[in-house]
């Protein structure tokens, strides 16, 4: 039975708990969230609302002093524990190109595979290449790829680390609409076929509505609603949401 701080208890394997408090002069984040570890959870809110801050805190990339993070029965952070990022079973895809420029697509992907011990590897190289349609690109260097192709390789590399959770911070925001439309179905496919739960940050409402099973709304560092997109659409003033999205979409 898992134990935290001497308290013995049962933890729900199917949920994650994220409680983070951070005071900066520019940002006052205060969230306490329980989310399912399945499907795609979209974190949606205006620019500067704290989406990236929350994701980086969850990943351990920024050390938020007041934090409790549990994913299933794994404790990533509490008063005593701070598991470093490389020991958290997560993959992270950023909005900017994060491939190694001197490595071919094949070697970038293999880097992800090598980061995961053999006995924990859940997906084969061939499987991931097929899911993302990368077979024709394997010999190319990153500078020989389009922005959309580069992001697909970055996603593939993250999956090959066999993460329990995939964090995606506006992975499509630097792409044109055509590339976005091409990649979105791949994200759904990965979620279903590889069964990797994702937290997907975006301020593009169209992406969020297409992808999300669970929607988390954040504003000024506070969670304002959590639910299915369908439920929230009924609750919220969708006219406001649509104009907010049109204002914020950088297409
Ligand atoms: N390292 C930092 N130090 C101080 N303030 C920061 C730091 N990083 C972000 N901020 C501030 O924290 C606030 C939240 O930023 P964050 O990047 O989390 O917002 P966001 O919702 O992801 O925005 P966007 O959609 O524009 O990426 C902003 O006011 C930002 O200026």
Automatic annotation (TrEMBL):
Molecular function via GO? ABC-type transporter activity; ATP binding; ATP hydrolysis activity; molybdate ion transmembrane transporter activity
Q: What SUPFAM superfamilies does the record tag this protein with?
A: P-loop containing nucleoside triphosphate hydrolases
One Pfam family linked to the record: ABC_tran
Keywords of the record, alphabetical order, are: ATP-binding, Cell inner membrane, Cell membrane, Membrane, Nucleotide-binding
Under the cellular component aspect of Gene Ontology, which terms does the record hold?
A: membrane
Q: Does the keyword tRNA-binding apply?
A: no
In its UniProt entry, what is this protein called?
Sulfate/thiosulfate import ATP-binding protein CysA
Q: Which residues form the ABC transporter domain?
A: 13-245
InterPro entries (alphabetical): AAA+_ATPase, ABC_transporter-like_ATP-bd, ABC_transporter-like_CS, ModC_ABC_ATP-bd, Molybdenum_import_ModC, P-loop_NTPase
Q: Does the keyword Iron-sulfur apply?
A: no
